[in-house]
Request: fold
Amino acid sequence: MENIAQLKSLLSIPKDIVITSHRNPDGDAIGSSLAMYHYLNEFGHTVRVIFPSEYPDFVAWMSDAEKITIYDIEPERSEELVQKADIIFCLDYNSLDRIDKLGEVIATLKDTQIVMIDHHLFPDIQADFQISEPSASSTCELIYDFIAMMGDRDKINVTIAECIFTGILTDTGSFKYSTSPKLFKIVSHLLELGVDDYKLNDLIFNSLEEKHLRLLGHCLKNRMEIIPEYKTGIIWLNRNDYEQFDIQRGDTEGIVNYLLKLKDIKIAAFITEQPTIVKLSLRSKGNISVQEIAQKHFKGGGHKNASGGSSYSTLKGTINKLKQILPQYKEMISA
Ligand code: 5GP
Ligand code: MN
Reply:
């Protein structure tokens, strides 16, 4: 962020601030939003966090999570708050279509300052201030950097540290991907500030209900298909599965990653039949870019090793489309 001094001066007077993150917020979305919320609150700003849709239960313990406004529940109030904000933060997403209707409202604003902090590829938001760093493990890592850039590292308290830790923990798959010496230095500082990593791991990862494990068993036993030639694994769920297992938003989180545990699998796809679309979650190992596959063929995007997209075709049609695309990537897959 080149114009950090300008932003610092803008924030030197109490402002009306709205923090937004993407639909189906994950640990990084809520971690970065609440970290920024608690940080800005220290300066007497009026700060609100708005998400397009509800956050999952495994982050409900986070300080002030219950104060977050959900657009799906309070659309009018959300639009009002966005419209009267002086500054809007866009965290953990880089394209306004990731926040649905709220994005359309933000696109019409003229005098509102936009601050984008994100780690996805190909930013597509006209921001007045931005940190866009695809090499970062998480937006939470960038929030730490942002606070440090503002000269306020000493303002990071244990509440902010817990939020930042949550996003780093979840987006790195428990310190498996996108780690760096710098990241571990940040994490070390967070622990010094009083983050109880054992407690947070337990709150975040050991909070499943029985139905989640039953669903996982169903996916692995009945819904998994392996395509050895293209080192690809697919797990799919149809509308009946959603009913039978009472699957709600967030209940399928992490299932796609099980495919990557297979020794010979390099691409993992989790394909689900939603009410109006078919949604794809793609993961890969090493140099294989599922971002390219998601963007080119499924109107999506994300990161090189973790992307998503959608299709208006049937479930079967979407699975077949993916299978037909794979030969184009044979070279990349066998490299
Ligand atoms: P997930 O598979 O967990 O839903 O998403 C993995 C990554 O892909 C996330 O970083 C998310 O931001 C991105 N992603 C998921 N769905 C979409 C989509 O429909 N469009 C775009 N541009 N990115 C997506
Ligand atoms: Mn993220």
